């Protein structure tokens, strides 16, 4: 993983910044591309705020596409080994690796993912770096009664947290 100083990042052409930071938001490099004309950024925090502002002002269809770009937790992509490197590490750290789950937990995740997808038509998104298996399962249960607009907003806030951690893995302020 490349770690770069913000001062160097600020001098990059847009295509290089997108190549480096495109995975900060799951399969959504458009966010970096649309934000990059605002460079240079005074801090990593300012960059993060600008990226999140791009998401928050995007049309609802783009926001939903961003949410849908995230994999189901303990879902098919995890079983098939097709998660991004970042998602794989985040799910494992939260105790969601295949070897970390009982058969009952795998069934619980499958059922909750299916219920959530059926209700909202997008995957359950939670910042795995800030949660563990039990709190993630509790989050499903707590959030399933929400209406679609509330859940879209909640998912976008969780995505902003995920992006914060991923950005800090790649860029430092000096």
Radius of gyration: 17 Å
Beta-strand portion reads: under 5%
Whole-number count of domains: 2
- Count of beta strands: 2
CATH architecture of the largest domain: Orthogonal Bundle
Structure at a glance:
The protein is an all-alpha fold and 174 residues long. The protein contains 10 helices and 2 strands; from the N terminus they run βααααααααααβ.
Description:
With 174 residues, the chain is mostly helical. The chain folds into 2 domains: 4-59, no CATH class; 66-168, Oxo-4-hydroxy-4-carboxy-5-ureidoimidazoline decarboxylase (UraD-like, Orthogonal Bundle), CATH 1.10.3330.10. The chain has helices spanning 6-9, 14-21, 30-35, 44-57, 60-68, 76-80, 85-93, 103-120, 133-143, 148-170, and strands at 4-5, 171-172. The mean pLDDT is 94.
Core attributes:
61% helix, mainly alpha, UraD-like, 174 residues, globular
Give the SSE layout.
Blueprint: E1 4-5, H1 6-9, H2 14-21, H3 30-35, H4 44-57, H5 60-68, H6 76-80, H7 85-93, H8 103-120, H9 133-143, H10 148-170, E2 171-172
Parallel strand pairs: 1-2
Helix pairs in contact: 4-10
């Amino acid at each position: 993983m490349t770690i770069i100083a913000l001062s160097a990042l600020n001098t990059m052409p847009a295509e290089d910044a997108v190549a480096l930071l495109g995975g900060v938001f799951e399969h959504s490099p458009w966010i970096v591309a649309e934000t990059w004309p605002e460079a240079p950024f005074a801090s990593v925090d300012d960059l993060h705020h600008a990226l999140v502002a791009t998401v928050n002002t995007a049309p609802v269809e783009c926001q939903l596409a961003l949410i849908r770009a995230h994999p189901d937790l303990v879902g098919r992509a995890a079983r098939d080994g097709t998660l991004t490197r970042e998602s794989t590490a985040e799910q494992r750290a939260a105790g969601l690796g295949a070897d970390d789950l009982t058969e009952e937990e795998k069934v619980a995740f499958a059922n909750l993912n299916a219920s959530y997808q059926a209700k909202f038509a997008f995957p359950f998104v939670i910042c795995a770096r800030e949660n563990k298996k039990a709190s993630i399962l509790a989050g499903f249960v707590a959030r399933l009664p929400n209406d679609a607009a509330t859940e879209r907003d909640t998912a976008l806030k969780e995505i902003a947290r995920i992006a914060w951690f991923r950005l800090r893995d790649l860029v430092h302020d000096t």
